Amino acid sequence: MTVMLLEFDDLHYSYPGGRGPVLQGVSFGIPEGKKCVLLGRNGCGKSTLFLHGNGIIQPQKGQVSWRGVPFVYKRQALQEMTQRVGLVFQDPEHQLIASTVSEDISYGLCNRKLPPEVIRAKVESILNVFGLRELADAPIHHLSLGQKRRLALAGVMVLEPELLLLDEPTAYLDRYQTKNLLRELDHIHQSGTTVLMATHDMDIAFEWAEWICVMDGGQLVFAGEPQEALEKREMLESLHLGLPLIAEVWDALPDTVKQGMEGSIPTSVDELKQRLAGRLVSSR
Ligand SMILES: Nc1ncnc2c1ncn2[C@@H]1O[C@H](COP(=O)(O)OP(=O)(O)OP(=O)(O)O)[C@@H](O)[C@H]1O
Ligand SMILES: [Mg+2]
Predict the structure, then answer these.
(1) Where in the sequence of the chain do the CATH 3.40.50.300 domains occur?
(2) Quick check: 281 pLDDT over 70?
(3) In the CATH hierarchy, which fold is given to the domain comprising 4-243?
(4) Which of 3, 61, 209, 274 could cross-link with 37 by S-S, CB 3.0 to 4.6 Å?
(5) Whose CA is nearest to atom 1 of ligand 1?
(6) pLDDT tens digits for 139-159?
């Protein structure tokens, strides 16, 4: 049975002084152990929803639950939630607070009052994992935007959250760092962390995710497996989200090539390669 780690139930939220409701009854659960992606056009409420995910924002109506238990908006309970749910902000400038890279990574660990030698060991290890070793003593304001993004993720991962919420983590990363990040997210996931990533990159979404959620107008409009999302291509197109390149390549293949390749649209290049290889073998 699928266990929902975090559940949003009929959330409503308007920013004070804002231009009207942002979340308008959004409901969905994040299944434990899955690599999940949240899609939705600019301004549909993804970042606002994430801020509800660890209690930074309290909904004006509806509730957020962790393993079926509703959030309690009191200091101690919220501190526990920020340990379970790691949120990496869309803008790293909102996340980084210390003056150097090492200090920033150790900040959350110091707040937990861990022994100095434990903190040192954890910081050392995470600097290596995120390729930040050479920047350990660099002032944060000297970092590039991509480096700041990696640091923001390192500062959250060092706290070992059960659920990781990533708000557009690949924006401003070059191809090499994007690949590194996705590989690192796979390691994080294999080590038992559930991940929900908001992204506008449809190729990354369909190549990486096991579960896709789509928001529009402050509501959830779809949740399901990537294959199922691709089968609802009118929905993706009507929301102007576009299609992953792999779906367009599939569409462009002549029927004679597709003949004998069972199943629906592949969601990754590897899957397409396997199908083509299988077809070549069976046609010999
Ligand atoms: N602090 C704020 N005060 C007032 N309105 C806000 C604030 N933050 C966001 N909004 C508004 O809330 C709406 C949803 O914003 P949000 O950032 O959640 O969308 P998003 O789906 O994350 O968009 P994007 O894909 O551009 O990151 C937008 O109309 C935005 O203008
Ligand atoms: Mg956003």
Answers:
(1) 4-243
(2) no
(3) Rossmann fold (3.40.50)
(4) 209
(5) 15
(6) 999 999 889 999 999 999 999
